[in-house]
Amino acid sequence: MSMIYNPRALEAWYTLMAEAMRGTSEAQNAFQSLSEMSSTPEDFNKWMTRFMPGAAGAMKMQPEGFEDQMESWWRMMGMVPRSRYLDLLEKNDALRRKLERAEKTIEGMRKKQGFQEQQEEEAKKVLDMWSGMMEETLKTQTEWMKAWTSTNSAGQGKKPASTDTEEETEEK
User: Fold this and answer.
1) Is residue 16 classed exposed, middle or buried when 0-12, 13-18 and 19+ CB atoms within 10 A define those classes?
2) Do 67 and 81 contact (CB within 8 A), yes or no?
3) What tens digit of pLDDT does each residue of 57-81 get?
4) Would you call 163 helix, strand, or coil by DSSP?
5) pTM of the entire predicted model
């Protein structure tokens, strides 16, 4: 059985937590001291002897594997080592900056796409207007040509060239 999950150590830990939640100054001092102590086996063993004497013998930390034992202990207590917290905080900040840059890039691309769509709509309107003007111009030129050829032909005594179909001629 691991020293970390020793029933005496767990009972002592939960008792200390309950006392701290009740507001006992000694238990709160224990947590304050735990948060400020260095991560050495000697310091942890001193802390255990001072604040959890019933579990100190069961939880004697040895220098070999101390970090693993401490991390297991902190994990069991629901704590995160400060060094890991700071690393995660730094990674979180880096990811937040990347996210902000990505959001700015996406926003810029959306604006650019919207501008291009607006330009495409305007170009389509211009093309439609130009096409309409060309149709009107051709229609007007055709009418002018008809009028000019009919007056020119009538003036020379020739029969005007008819653009009517045979059916329209028969109806006249």
Assistant:
1) buried
2) no
3) 655 555 555 567 667 777 777 777 7
4) coil
5) 0.35
